[in-house]
Structure formats: structure tokens, C-alpha cells
Design goal:
By secondary structure, the chain is of the alpha/beta class. The protein contains 14 helices and 12 strands. A 7-stranded mixed beta sheet has the order 2-8-7-6-5-3-4, with helices on both faces. Helix 9 links the parallel strand 6 and strand 7. Helix 5 crosses helix 10 and helix 12 packs parallel to helix 14. Bound molecules: pyridoxal-5'-phosphate. Pyridoxal-5'-phosphate binds next to helix 5.
């Protein structure tokens, strides 16, 4: 008896795997096979988690914090997150408005699921973090991609936002500082976008994952803290992964108006239960032992800033490349459109012949760019950018 293969679901067939993880995995496989590849693809700090955070987690594990925890997070951590929004932004948050999830990625997904129904439209400014359109599709909603290229500093303008809104629009996703561009919206720029969201009664998903990774005296703005109207419609996502070099811990935070926070917690109760209980005690130490945490963060920021300036200067010396100096996160997003190659081909040849791993801009909805992460060592950056320069020179011949 012959049977045809059982079909997979719409969700499984329509989801695109993360291209950033794919490039990083390919680079790591080449490295494991003995190839000397300079990796600019990974979106994670090359630092280890600060010791006091690890110690608190180990103590919790040894102390028996090994059972299920409350779905939205252990109470002291929710309290500490609420307190830090008051301290950082003057935003009054109740612990019941905080949901701790297994990573900021999951927090974003739950935020979308809690607000969007099938057929709703979600405005996603491009260049976007690769997961947003996929999350929107997994909720049955429709991503509306709006390109904001280097001519506007990779920032969506109020006119662009307004033009993309239809009666079906439910949510707009704003990410500042941005992955992949490092761009930071000013307070005034965000206030102008919020005005439009208020006018059209949209939810805002404010992905503030990189809020503490800022340079040149720049400040990240907490969108919910802009006004009462902003607060009433904004879901803030943040986390521990990037700021405290805790990517493998899988802890993200979501802060939202009470009905949304409750819905997010209920969704989480059916999807993942809770974040690993003892890991939450490590996150708690990151917020409570402020001096040690700040010292560790400062050390990372000094290194990131040095690398950012170096990489930016070297990229702009390469004929054919132009690159804005981003003020946040740990990415630069150079324009390589002058080479006349599709960015996917550029990256594939760069990896195969130049031995440099970079992610094509098209993975982020912006053809003609590269995303380079400078969360890697000074040596690799120096060697990698020299290789990139040689590769670009070979293309010009
Ligand atoms: C913009 C942005 N948001 C959210 C996340 C999710 O972070 P995590 O799930 O590792 O906490 C990332 C990670 O790459 C990111 O770049």
C-alpha cells in the first residue's frame, strides 16, 4: 500500500528559518572544519555573563530552586523589573504588569499573539529584526513591511507610517536601538510616531532589547514613558541577553497595560510554563547588585564603542562602501549596493573566498546592505575588515 507523505501545517510551511542563525552556523561549521573564518554574523556579546549573576543562579540551584515557578516570573524579579522602569524612566509599573519569558524573542511573539488576530495587519519597519515578520505570520496576521533606508538614517518617518496604515492595521513594531542597523530614534522622532499610532488607535510593540547599549552620549527612549497615551497602548519588550551577556540563559521581559500582561501570562501558561526557575535568580542579581552589574556593563560598552569606531572608520575607507555611524546596539549596516551584486551573492562569495561571515541586508528586508556585528574580538574585526577590503577590491577589478 502506498501512502503520500502527510502534509505539514501552514505554519510550518510558511515559516522562514532565522537567516542570522543560519549564517552563523555555516561560519561555525567552516571554523570547526579548520577554516579560518572571521565571523561578523553572531548577534551576541563575546563576553561571559558577569560572575555575581552566575553565583546567584548557582546558589539558587544548590538551594533547591528547582521546581516550577509562577508562570509570569518569580515575584522578586517582577518587582525588581517594575522598580527599574521607575528608576530608569520614571515609569510607574506594577509587578502584575511584568511577564518574564524564555527570551525576548518569546516575549515579542507573545506580545503579537496577545494583540493580533488572523487577518490583522502589523507594520514592520525595515530593516527589521528577522523574527518580526515570521512572528506576525505565525499569529495569522499580515506583516506590512515599510523600508526606511540609510537616507533617513534607517528610521521610519511619520509620513511613511501614516501611509502604511489601513483599516486592518492593529500593531506597529518599533525597535530602538535597532538590530540590524544600530539606529536610535530620538525622543521627538518617537513622539511623532506615537501620535500617529494614537490617532489610528494602534498598539505599539516597543522592542527595547538594546536600550543600554548606547554610545556617544546617546539615550534610548522608553516609548511607554513618553505619555499616558503611549503607555496605554505600548508593550515593552526588553531583557537580559544582550545587556548582561546572558544570551544562553533565555530570559526576556515584557511590560504592558494590565489586560495585555494578563493575556500574555495566560498564553505563556499554555506554551512554556515559566522561565527556568534558578536562572531567574541570576537575572534578579543582575538587577539587584547594581554596582557590580554596572561595572561589568561599562567594561563591555568601552570595548563595543572602541570596536564600533574602528570598524566604522575602516569600512568607510573601502572604495564602494558607505556606512553610517550607528549610536546603539552592536551592529553596523554598510551599504554595498555599488558593487552591483545581490547582497546574498556578495555574502556567499565573501564567506567562500574572503573567509568573512556577514549577514545580507535582504535578510532584514533591505537589499544592498550587510549586517556586521562588532560583538567579537578586536583582532577578528581588524583581520576581517582587511579581508573585506581585499574582497571588495577584487570585485572592482
Ligand atoms: C531586536 C531584538 N529583539 C529581541 C531579541 C531577542 O533576544 P533574546 O530572545 O535572546 O532574549 C533580539 C536578539 O537577537 C533582538 O536582536
Amino acid at each position: 500500500m502506498s501512502s503520500s507523505p502527510l502534509p505539514l501545517s501552514t505554519w510550518a510551511l510558511n515559516v522562514s528559518p532565522s537567516p542570522t542563525l543560519a549564517v552563523d552556523a555555516k561560519a561555525k561549521a567552516l571554523q570547526a572544519a579548520g577554516d579560518d573564518v572571521c565571523g561578523f554574523a553572531a548577534g551576541e556579546p563575546d563576553f561571559d555573563t558577569p560572575q555575581h549573576i552566575k553565583d546567584a543562579c548557582i546558589a539558587a540551584l544548590q538551594g533547591g530552586k528547582t521546581k516550577y515557578a509562577p508562570t509570569p516570573g518569580i515575584e522578586p524579579l517582577r518587582v525588581a523589573v517594575a522598580e527599574r522602569y521607575m528608576a530608569d524612566y520614571g515609569l510607574k509599573v506594577l509587578p502584575s504588569q511584568v511577564v518574564v519569558s524564555p527570551g525576548g524573542k518569546f516575549s515579542c511573539y507573545l506580545g503579537v499573539l496577545a494583540t493580533c488576530s488572523p487577518g490583522d495587519e502589523v507594520i514592520v519597519p525595515a530593516p527589521f529584526w528577522v523574527s518580526y515578520p515570521e512572528m506576525v505570520k505565525l499569529a495569522g496576521a499580515v506583516p506590512k513591511l515599510v523600508l526606511a533606508d540609510d537616507r533617513t538614517g534607517f528610521k521610519l518617518t511619520p509620513a511613511q507610517l501614516e501611509a502604511a496604515i489601513t483599516p486592518k492595521t492593529k500593531l506597529v513594531i518599533l525597535n530602538s536601538p535597532s538590530n540590524p542597523t544600530g539606529a536610535i530614534y530620538t525622543r521627538a522622532e518617537l513622539a511623532a510616531l506615537v501620535d500617529i499610532a494614537v490617532k489610528h488607535n494602534l498598539y505599539i510593540l516597543a522592542d527595547e532589547m538594546y536600550e543600554h547599549l548606547v554610545y556617544d552620549g546617546a539615550h534610548a527612549t522608553c516609548i511607554a514613558a513618553l505619555s499616558k497615551e503611549a503607555e496605554a497602548r505600548t508593550i515593552i519588550v526588553a531583557g537580559f541577553s544582550k545587556t548582561y551577556a546572558m544570551t544562553g540563559w533565555r530570559i526576556g521581559t515584557l511590560v504592558a497595560p494590565p489586560p495585555i500582561a494578563k493575556a500574555v501570562s495566560e498564553l505563556q501558561s499554555q506554551m512554556s510554563s515559566n522561565v527556568t526557575t534558578f536562572a531567574q535568580y541570576g537575572a534578579l542579581a543582575a538587577l539587584k547588585e547594581k554596582e557590580k552589574t554596572q561595572a561589568a556593563l561599562k567594561e563591555m560598552l568601552v570595548a563595543f564603542d572602541r570596536r564600533r569606531k574602528f570598524l566604522h572608520a575602516e569600512l568607510n575607507k573601502i572604495p564602494g562602501i558607505t556606512c553610517l555611524l550607528a549610536e546603539g546596539a552592536f551592529y553596523l549596516f554598510p551599504n554595498i549596493s555599488s558593487f552591483g551584486l545581490k547582497d546574498v551573492d556578495f555574502c556567499s562569495r565573501l564567506l567562500d573566498t574572503g573567509k568573512v561571515a556577514a549577514v545580507p541586508g535582504s535578510a532584514f528586508g533591505a537589499e544592498g546592505y550587510l549586517r556586521l556585528s562588532y560583538a567579537t574580538s578586536d583582532e577578528i574585526i581588524k583581520k576581517g575588515v582587511e579581508r573585506l577590503a581585499r574582497f571588495c577590491a577584487s570585485l572592482k577589478k
